[in-house]
Amino acid sequence: MMSAWAQVKRLKISENKVLKVVVLLTLLLMAAPAAVQNLRAGGSGDNDQCGEASNKGQIQIPNRRPTPLFEGKEGKQKTEIHFDLATRMVTVKLLVQDPNGYFIPNIRRDNFAVYENNIRQHNATVEIEHAPVTLGLLLEFGGRAQALNRSLGTEVARAGRQLLDELGRGDKVAIWRYSDKVEKLADFAQGHETLDRVFQDLGTPEFSETNLYDALIYVVEQMRSVQGRKAIVLISSGVDTFSKSKYDDALRAARDAGTPIYVVSLVPALRSLIEAYGSAGPLARVDWNAANRGLEEIARVSGGRAYSPASTIDLFSMYDDMMENLRVRYVITYQSSSGLDLNSPRTVRVELVDSKTGGPLQITDESGRTIPARIVVQDSYVPSAASGGELTSGSSSFSK
C-alpha cells in the first residue's frame, strides 16, 4: 500500500503538471492577438525583414549568377502597349532587369512611378504576368560531314527534348528541321506527348547541304501571323553551305520579324568533334568563331538571346533563363490624363522610387550588394495604333 507521503508527493507532482499546463495556455492566449495582427500585416519572419527593407526604401532580391547565361549582347526587346479608346486605359507590359539580364522580382506596386508626357499618372496599378508562349522551334538536321551527323542528331534531339520539359499546358510549339530543305515535324495544335515522340524518332541526318539562312527566313514568315507572346528557338551550328539567301538577308528578316529569336549554339558541342577529323574533314576550314558571332547577331537584332552551352547534357538553367525572359512582365495599367490627339505620339517613362521619400528605390541582393535596375520600356506610343494591339516604335532602357 502506498504511504501517505508518497500519496502527497504524487499529488504535488500532478498539481505542478496542471499548473504548468495552465501557465502555458495563458501564455499562448496572450500571444494569439499579436500573432493574428502579424498575419494580417503579412508577416512571417522573412516578410518582416522585407517590410523593414521596404520601410528603408529598399527591396531585397535573391542572389543570382554574377554573369549572364547568354552570350554577346542582349537584343532590345519590344514593349507591349495597348490603349483602350473607350476608357483611355493604357496597359504597358515591361521588363525590369539587373545588368546581367535577370528579371528583378519583389518590386511593389507603389515603387513604380509612371509618367505620360512628363505628367505623373497617379492612378496606376501594377501586376506581374506569366504569359503563355508560342514557340517556333527550328532544328539543324543535316550536313556534309556524314560521320558527324550521328552526333548532330543526338545533340539536337537532347536539346529539343529538354526545351519541351520547360513548357506549360498553355504553351504551344511547332517544330521544323532543316538541311537542304525545310521540313515541318509538328504544328501548334499537337500535344506534348506527340512532340516528345518527334525527338524520339529523329534518327540520324542524311548527307546534305545546310541551308540555315533560307530556313530561318522561311520560319520567320511562318511566325509572323502568330498572336500573343511568341519566339523562335533556333538550335544550330551557324553553318550555311548553299542557301539562296545571304547572311544579310537572314539578318534583315530577323530584325524585321517582330519575333525574338533565341539561339542555342551547337558550336561548342560539335567543334571539338569536327576538329578531330583534321584537315581531311569537310568542315575543317569553317571559322567557328565567326559562325558563333553570326548566331549571336541574329539573336541580338531580333530582340532575343544567344546561348553557347559547352554541352547539351544539361540545358535546364539556360532554358529557365530563356523562358523567364520571354514569359515574365510587369503589367502597368493607368487611365491616361492626356486629352491630346489620339494620332499624336505620347511619351512614356517609368521610374522606381521609394514610396515614402520619393527618392530612388534601392535594390540589394541577399549578400547586401546594390543591384542597379534597368527598365525596358517603350519611349512613346500612338493611341490610335496601340488600340489595335500593335507594337509601336522604339524600346529603350532606363537605368536606375
Task: Write up this protein.
This protein has helices at about 5-40, 45-55, 145-165, 190-200, 210-225, 245-255, 265-275, 290-300, 315-325, 385, and strands at about 60, 80-85, 90-95, 110-115, 120, 125-130, 135-140, 170-180, 180-185, 230-235, 260-265, 305, 330-335, 345-350, 360-365, 375-380, 380, 395-400. With about 400 residues, it is an alpha/beta fold. It has 3 domains: about 5-60; about 75-120 and about 335-400, no CATH class; about 145-325, Rossmann fold, CATH 3.40.50. The strands form 4 sheets. Strands 2, 3, 6, 13, 16 and 18 form a 6-stranded antiparallel β-sheet that branches. It has a 6-stranded mixed β-sheet with strand order 9-8-7-10-11-12, with helices on both faces. It has a 4-stranded antiparallel β-sheet with strand order 5-4-14-17. Mean pLDDT is about 85; it is low at about 1-55 and about 390-395.
Fold blueprint:
Layout: H1 4-40, H2 45-55, E1 58-61, E2 80-83, E3 89-97, E4 112-116, E5 119-120, E6 125-130, E7 134-140, H3 146-164, E8 172-178, E9 182-186, H4 192-200, H5 212-223, E10 230-236, H6 247-256, E11 261-265, H7 267-275, H8 288-302, E12 306-307, H9 316-327, E13 328-335, E14 346-352, E15 362-365, E16 374-378, E17 380-381, H10 383-386, E18 395-399
Parallel strand pairs: 1-15, 7-8, 7-10, 10-11, 11-12
Antiparallel strand pairs: 2-3, 3-13, 3-16, 4-5, 4-14, 6-13, 8-9, 14-17, 16-18
